[in-house]
Structures are given as structure tokens and as C-alpha cells.
Specification:
Layout (H helix, E strand, L loop, with lengths): L1 E4 L13 E4 L9 H14 L7 E4 L2 H7 L6
Antiparallel strand pairs: 1-2, 2-3
Length: about 70
């Protein structure tokens, strides 16, 4: 799953920081409904930014938003 924080860059002013995250969600052999329920449960229990990887934005933005820049 790819998401932006604190919002999509196109919805922000030019100098507002943003980051793009990648959150890998394992898919198992259960049906789609069970997988969606599992994803929803994960989102209720955990902020995805805590286990997602920064994959877009800039080092400056990461510093300003308090996230490590690992490139």
C-alpha cells in the first residue's frame, strides 16, 4: 500500500513537507473479505507510518516531519 503523509503533494502548498510511504501487507490464501478485514484491523490497531518505509519526498521533508531518510 502506498500513501502520503500528511497529504498528497498536489493538495499542499509548494513549501509544505510531504512524504510517500510504502507499507507491505502480506497476502495469504484466505478470501478477499478476510484479507480486507485483516487490513482494516491492522489500520485500527497500528499507525501504518510506524512500520512503513519512506519511498518519496526529500531528506529535508523527512527531517521536518521527524522521519528517517534511508536512501
Amino acid at each position: 500500500m502506498i500513501f502520503y503523509y500528511p497529504g498528497h503533494p498536489s493538495s499542499r502548498d509548494d513549501d509544505d513537507p510531504w512524504l510517500q510511504f510504502e507499507w507491505v501487507i502480506p497476502v495469504d490464501g484466505t478470501g478477499l473479505d478476510a484479507q480486507v478485514a485483516h487490513l482494516a484491523d491492522c489500520l485500527r490497531r497500528t499507525d501504518p507510518k510506524t512500520s512503513a518505509r519512506v519511498v518519496g519526498g526529500s531528506q529535508e521533508y523527512a527531517n521536518r516531519l521527524g522521519f528517517p531518510w534511508l536512501y
